[in-house]
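Subject: sequence -> structure tokens, single chain

Hey, anyone have a minute? Need the predicted structure for the following. Not urgent.
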Amino acid sequence: MHPIQTLLIILSLLTILKFSRVFAIFGGRPARVPPYDDPVVFINHVGRFSRVEGYFNPSTALYTFRGIRYAEPPIRENRFMRPNLKRLKGDVDARKNAPPCPQPDYYDPRKIIGDEDCLALNIFTPQMPDESSGLPVILFIHGGGYRYGSASQYGAEPITQENVIFVPIQYRLGTLGILGDGTRDFGGNVAIFDMHAALKWITQYISFFGGDKNKIKVMGHGSGASAAMFLTRSPYGRSSVDGVIAMSGSSLDQYSYQEDGKNSTEEIANAHNCSHDNEMKLLHCLRTKSIDDIITKDSNLQIERLQNKDIVKSMSGMVGTSPNIESKDDDRGLPGIITENPKESMKKEPEKRIPILIGSTKHETANIMNPKEVTKIFGSASNFLKLSMNALKLNDLLNVTNSKVSSVLGLLNIPALNDYLTVPENLSPEKMLNKLIDVSTDIFFNIPITLTANLWSKFAPAFFYQFDHVGDSSGGGKHFLKPLPLVSNGNSKGYVAHGDELSYLFDAYDVFGNRINETELKSPRDQEARKNFIKTVTQFAYMNESNSQMSLNGQLLDIFKADSTNFIKISDKLTFDKNFRICELSVLENSVGAKS
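Reply:
Had a minute. Here:
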């Protein structure tokens, strides 16, 4: 055996002996509490030895390992290629954040930030490995419409206090992460493959950091929520995933994927003056382009889309190109990761019963809603809502579920769809704004999310929540998701809009990992709402396939059912209710059902 390997084994044994937490009693007195472990992990995995050094914060008792690369840098000939898993080897300095993946600067979109060597993750753990079976793990996929965001934004001090390990990951963004037309030879979706590589890395290594590889929940927000569902339903990820937490997003969202990626691929090729007749020529051409050029062209395409009345698309939180539905595996090439429309895949019984916790905020669209702008662009608020309804293609969604949101609809006096979508012009500005927010939140968020819970509950436990706490502190959405039109164009004071709930789970940082103090929760109300939200998420994290029950405040929760739509209402008080927005959602569903 090599001398270095022998030394590392000896150090590993000494570390275990030195830092095993043994509480003994001598002479009838409790022994002194041992000191905290050093933030150093020794790893021996498949013959590779590594020493990973992190950071310990004595004020929070949290161990942090930052900027660990889970894949080789996707540069030069590896740009646009699927990731190559990176094994830990030798000394690893995990005391600083990795750069974000290339994207526009949050505060000056003309400036490009980040680096292609960005496929990294952070690990936050409240304890080092001991003799226990390991803590549940939450793998977090950030939102940002596949164009913005980083792992460094999400401070895990609050959520890890409930004895879970939190692992936010980074993945390629924009053209660098999605480019492809879905065909067998050019499937694309390398960003989703990045997520799978991170999941695989965590499965192999998390036990060395005190985690249980059999208790991995994949959690995402917005576009990250739909990505989490794609990963969980794919043959690549489902065997390693123990549960899904989908915040304000769903793979049933009309804009969470594209059936045919050829149009967007042609757009990108034309923007760079590259031929799109042959994928190899296109890739070769784009590999010669600078990162600044690629990200700038992505921004230009985003502006063109939004100017083309795609404000409707931006309502869903999507601003870039969505993942492709890839060709099915024909054994002639590498199998794809999203090979079936989610509307179809959710109808089928999965190979593994994976529970889901899914929900939204009460006023998702509050930050983008401006009655004057809506009237200016669409002629009237009513026109906007009707156009939004058409964009959702609700008929397709309802044909998938083949059932009503509730079986008791016949007992209700449901108003006509036209009345629901009509906004009288003589309404006061405040009432008009509230109407726009309520209906557009139903259309773009509550309908896809509720139908997702409906489909999921047929084969696995589903739990549904609504976060409706209007806090005293500044809305978190504009800090975590600042560049998204859905959150950047307004001030959601008096509402809880898209992304605002994030500051109740995490401390806010910028994409480089600098603290944003403006989101600090100070009032007792906000602190209580944080406690309740974290409790909901972490209780779900402790669920497993053999124990699919979930309890909060000593109460065993009912799983989501289509005929009762049970849900958890999260605020400074934690309450349990049923018939989630039954009247409003029934209007939308019944109106389409009558046409079918």
